[in-house]
Amino acid sequence: MALGRPGFNRGPRPPFKKKEAEHNINEFIKAPQIRLVGDNVEQGVYSLSEARAIAEEQELDLVEISPNANPPVCKVIDYNKFIYEQKKKLKEIKANAKQTIIKEIRFGPNTSEHDFQFKLKHAVSFLEAGEKVRAYVHFKGRAIVYKEQGEILLLKFAQALEEYGKVEQLPKLEGKRMFLIVGPKATKK
């Protein structure tokens, strides 16, 4: 008796495929002429066979780093070292990229003045810290009939934050929520 769905035969599991090289290396380079670069190499345009001979002489790989150039640019380097350096550069770029943090502030359509001021104070501190603020009015049940009040509330909020940030998205209704996004003002260095 077979287990599982009737008429469904899994069969043997297919073998895993090794991840192919991201770059053409050594015998996979097809261009007849290439521009050769690298350490301990005289830079210039060589035939593919000459370039491979130079790489073999140094016991290194010939890696195609710019296949769309005319002629393609190849580098004489150990391929594993090349991949390691690329991953290191990517990691450094990611580390230097600034993450955008968005803080949310929720209002009701009939938010009191005290609550409004309290939430405004928090929004000011978020913007001064360089974070974006996403303010929204959530309409429960039949409160959607007060969407004009919600829009007025968000515009008043944006106007109160004018000196701390700039409006990136004006009030927009999506489902039962009306959103407003305010980003921090660019600091002058």
Would you summarize the structure shown here?
The protein has 189 residues and is of the alpha/beta class. The chain has helices spanning 48-57, 79-96, 113-128, 147-160; strands at residues 33-38, 44-47, 61-66, 73-77, 102-107, 132-138, 165-174, 177-184.
Layout of helices and strands:
Elements: E1 33-38, E2 44-47, H1 48-57, E3 61-66, E4 73-77, H2 79-96, E5 102-107, H3 113-128, E6 132-138, H4 147-160, E7 165-174, E8 177-184
Parallel strand pairs: 1-4, 5-6
Antiparallel strand pairs: 1-2, 3-4, 6-8, 7-8
Explained architecture:
The protein is an alpha/beta fold and 189 residues long. The chain has two domains: 26-87, Ubiquitin-like (UB roll) (Roll); 102-184, Translation initiation factor 3 (IF-3), C-terminal domain (Translation Initiation Factor IF3, 2-Layer Sandwich). Helices cover 31% and strands 28% of the residues. It contains four helices and eight strands. A hairpin with a 5-residue loop joins β1 (33-38) and β2. The chain starts with 32 loop residues before the first strand and ends in a 5-residue tail after the last strand. The model has no long low-confidence stretch (mean pLDDT 83).
Round the Cα radius of gyration to an integer and report it: 30 Å
How much helix, percentage-wise, in residues? 25-40%
Which range does the strand content fall in? 25-35%
Cα shape: rod-shaped
The largest sheet is: 4 strands, mixed
Number of helices: 4
CATH topology description of the largest domain:
Translation Initiation Factor IF3
- In the CATH hierarchy, what is the architecture of the largest domain at level 2? 2-Layer Sandwich
Q: Uncertain regions: pLDDT < 50 for 5+ in a row?
A: none
Q: Give the CATH level 1 class of the largest domain.
A: Alpha Beta
Q: Give the CA-CA distance, first to last residue.
A: 75 Å
